[in-house]
Amino acid sequence: MSASRAALRIMRAIRVSEFGAPEVMKFKTDVPIPEPTGKEILIKISSAGVNPADTYVRTGSYPVKPPLPYTPGKDAAGIVEKVGPKAKILKAGDRVYTYACGSGSYAEYGLAPEDKVRILPDNLTFQEGASIGVPYYTAFRALFQRGKARANETVLIHGASGAVGIACLQFGSAYGLKMLGTAGTTKGLELIKEHGAEACFNHSEQDYTSQIMEATGGSGPDLIVEMLGNVNLQKDLEMVAKYGRIVVVGNRGSIEINPRLTMVKEAAVVGVMLGTANEFETKELMAATQAGLVKGFLKPIVGQEFTLDQAVEAHHEVIEHKQGTYGKIVLNI
Length: 333
Hints:
Helices cover 32% and strands 25% of the residues.
């Protein structure tokens, strides 16, 4: 940020004044810098994470619509610039990350409540910090809070090369689960193997579900974490083990399924929405993630980096995957 803009208390940010395609996002240079109140933390953002949910909010199709105009983004990493008068833990100069940037993370500065901000370990970059929140918290919630995974169970991550998928593999491997994963490219298959998949399957191949069944001795996975339910849910129901669980993390449309498969196997299909976690669950998933980062068994993967003024391109990529799906997409502020 230039000294002149800082003196004027204005910043660069992406603003959305109408819901629609990625092009409704506009790069602005005269947005007021927010002021922290109460227990809020003002973060000078170095990198912002780009999540699929950001695109759903932008289109106006998300269950909760922000008032217009707004700045997109929730994941951010940077340095504490200033703290509100009631903040007690963090201080100016701390390296931090958050998944709850209420003022929007596609900006030079952002506000987040102190209890939703954590210290960024010294061994992680700001780009990696911006890749933690939504993906890792969603992964923990999917596996353990909603999926009820237990050590020694077999878990399939159906679409494992993205940010949430990689987080699931890292968590599951550390917690004693037998992790299986799918990806659609050779690079993706190599990535998921590197991060904990004991067996990898190319979901672009016609018979990959048969390969998964063979790898599980015909019984199927105990738990399936599904990244694209509108494409794969029927396949999941056919593959999942007796008494198994299917956790839907991602979905972009409707699909016809045979509910009888849930009856025959007494299988459960549950959804995941990070924002639905209660206070205890939120503290649990944040603590588990922080411990994994500090101890080193969690390591975010940054797949692609864009600049702030390339937010439109980043939104196209996070949905269209023109370059393939590999870890997290971030905006460098």
